[in-house]
């Protein structure tokens, strides 16, 4: 049922034509994986002041997949930051995270937010 709803959503709301819906969904899935990879890397690195870098990197990588990836990155980022605002945790931090999210989605270099000394693995 969920894939059917997603397909209808793409057709009606996003205006994805019948030729591109499969590509859009593929990009969205890949973008979701990119966001997850950035999150797990952030947790693994556990590096001070690296949060904005991983936000920007996840959004950048997802957006590079195409419109579906950019859409997935926006939905995931907005949901995460929306949850923070609802719970009242770190509104200023949430704004800064959204800035980093938009920076990455717009195609700007996420290394702008890279903290000094972060291992090159990331």
UniProtKB/TrEMBL annotation:
Residues 1-18 form the signal peptide. Gene3D superfamilies: Serum amyloid A protein (1.10.132.110). The keyword Signal applies. SMART domains: SAA. PANTHER family: SERUM AMYLOID A, SERUM AMYLOID A PROTEIN. Belongs to the SAA family. This is Serum amyloid A protein. It comes from Mesocricetus auratus (Golden hamster).
């Amino acid at each position: 049922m969920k894939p059917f709803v997603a397909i209808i959503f793409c057709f009606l709301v996003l205006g994805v034509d019948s030729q591109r819906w499969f590509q859009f969904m593929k990009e969205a899935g890949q973008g979701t994986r990119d966001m997850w990879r950035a999150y797990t890397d952030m947790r693994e690195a556990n590096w001070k002041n690296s949060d904005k870098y991983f936000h920007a990197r996840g959004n950048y990588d997802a957006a590079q997949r195409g419109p579906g990836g950019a859409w997935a990155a926006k939905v995931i980022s907005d949901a995460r930051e929306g949850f923070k605002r609802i719970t009242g945790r770190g509104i200023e931090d949430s704004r800064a995270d959204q800035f980093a999210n938009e920076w990455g989605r717009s195609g700007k270099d996420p290394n702008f937010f890279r903290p000094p000394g972060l291992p090159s693995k990331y």
